[in-house]
Specification:
single chain, alpha/beta, Urease, subunit C, domain 1, TIM Barrel, 4-stranded parallel sheet, 38% helix, binds zinc ion
Length: 478
């Protein structure tokens, strides 16, 4: 760990004290009545409140969190904040028609102003749901001015994260086979790389929010462009993401075009590593899982989305045993989710059903996947509460009747689905206090987001997706 400042002056230290703390640090996983001392944007110490009080005395600024439950800030490994523009629409479709009839026409009509308005709303919502870092795949629109503006919006909200610039490139056969909207394929391979480089030059890596390349999907990307994105990421020492093997249909198309399954093909191109993250990764066979483990590739599991679109179930245990890293993602708000607590609960339950085995998952594994395993994808010192880490953490208020008793806090958090988030600290700063942003006006953010969404539905011709009531297809009981 770097930047440890054990000699910090007590008067520059803030101490959050009195809460029970799930640290995700194996050395002291649960501290009852604990404290976290922070200096600048780093954690100085985590331990029992009485012990830290002796070290930092009464000079530290003290924030009373008695009765709260603290855990590392959640890392959303894969989202699409802009898709909140279509929240609650497009239900009842599997992945390909969902893209063809709903999301891609919506995306083709998003303006830069729409994107900024919805980023504020969806980003605020993420923070209020305990997410402190988001790797966001943004693909509408993707001009450098908008991408850089969104990175700054993310920072302004107080989030950490990545704006992963969506890259479609030229239309290729895979795009035709998936009936993709041709309006999204508007740049050549060389133009896409030049545009992404321009984003990186205007907003260089290393800050609280980075810009990464996101070649959208292994099936409909020009292979040269995909390889160029991976090379660009390596050269800039950043990560990259791609949608891969979400539906069985995509894998069939890919195999018919390339004569190999996607992970095997990507390994043959030499682009899989601990820098690459594959979103979804459901339909891998045994040989692919072996390759993903050997290359230490990241898989972002989106269990709510996968159930919503009826895509399939990730092979979690085989992937982890093989050595791949699997973290959790929300995949945005347009696929049935509401954030990372729900993702943990959905992932916990779904794997048990996949294996018909109640030992297939644990609350602790889900917490790891939502924190430190996501941090590995993000490539930042977050996801654990111990000295030297960046100070990103969340305080939950679970004292009310709906969460009590909570004899085993890890289980209580994962089973809660939607616990009450009280305070959120990112980079050492309190960005949510008592459920309200310290940085933005909630009412204005909501009003602007609603206005953008309403206008877009008309402009994109999606009015017929808005239905007051869709009657169930069954007769009422007599
Ligand atoms: Zn996605």
């Amino acid at each position: 760990m770097t930047d440890m400042t054990p000699a910090a002056r007590p008067d520059s230290v803030t101490q959050f004290e009195g809460a029970d703390i799930l640290t995700l640090d194996p050395a002291q996983p649960l501290i009852r009545k604990g404290a976290i001392a922070v200096s600048g944007n780093r954690i100085l110490a985590v331990g029992p409140q009485a012990q830290l009080a002796k070290t930092y005395g009464t000079q530290a600024r003290r924030i009373d969190w008695t009765g709260l439950l603290v855990l590392p800030g959640l890392v959303d490994g894969h989202s699409h904040l802009f898709q909140s523009l279509g929240r609650t629409l497009g239900d009842g479709l599997s992945l390909l028609p969902w893209l063809e009839h709903f999301m891609l026409p919506l995306a083709a009509n998003v303006t830069p102003d729409d994107a900024i308005a919805i980023y504020r709303l969806a980003g605020l919502s993420a923070l209020l749901l305990g997410t402190t870092a988001v790797i966001d795949n943004h693909y509408a629109p993707v001009d450098p001015d908008t991408i850089v503006a969104l990175a700054r919006e993310m920072e302004a909200l107080g989030l950490r994260g990545v704006v992963a610039r969506g890259i479609f490139g030229p239309m290729v056969e895979g795009g035709h086979r998936m009936n993709c909207d041709p309006r999204l394929f508007r740049h050549s391979t060389a133009e896409e790389i030049a545009l992404t480089r321009a984003c990186l030059a205007a907003h260089p890596p290393g800050g609280r929010v980075e810009i990464w390349p996101m070649p959208e999907n292994v099936v409909y990307l020009d292979p040269e462009l995909l390889i160029a994105c991976a090379e660009l990421a390596a050269k800039q020492d950043i990560g990259w993401q791609i949608h891969c093997s979400e539906s069985s249909f995509e894998v069939e198309i890919f195999e018919s075009l390339y004569g190999a399954r996607p992970a095997i093909w990507m390994q043959a191109q030499g682009i899989l590593s601990d820098r690459s993250a594959l979103a979804h990764g459901i339909w891998f066979d045994d040989a692919e899982i072996e390759v993903l483990g050997a290359t230490r590739t990241h898989i972002v599991h989106n269990p709510v989305c996968n159930q919503y679109l009826a895509s399939g179930i990730v092979k979690l245990d085989p992937l982890l045993r093989a050595g791949a890293n699997v973290c959790l993602g929300s995949d945005g708000m347009a696929v049935g989710g509401s954030g990372m607590f729900e993702a943990m609960k959905a992932g916990f339950l779904l794997q048990r059903l996949r294996e018909y085995n109640p030992l297939a998952t644990s609350a602790e594994l889900m917490l790891e996947m939502a924190t430190l395993r996501g941090a590995a994808v993000l490539r930042r010192d977050v996801g654990q509460l111990r000295a030297g880490m960046l100070a990103d953490f969340v305080a939950l208020d679970m004292r009310g009747a709906i969460n009590q008793p909570m004899t085993r806090p890890a289980m209580a958090v994962v089973m809660a689905g939607l616990p009450t988030v009280s305070d959120v600290v990112v980079d050492g700063e309190v960005v949510i206090r008592a459920g309200r942003s310290t940085r933005v006006d909630h009412d204005k953010v909501i009003a602007d987001g609603l206005q953008a969404a309403g206008a877009l539905i008309e402009r994109a011709g999606l009015r017929d997706l808005v239905r007051d009531w869709i009657p169930p297809a069954y007769a009422h009981p007599a």
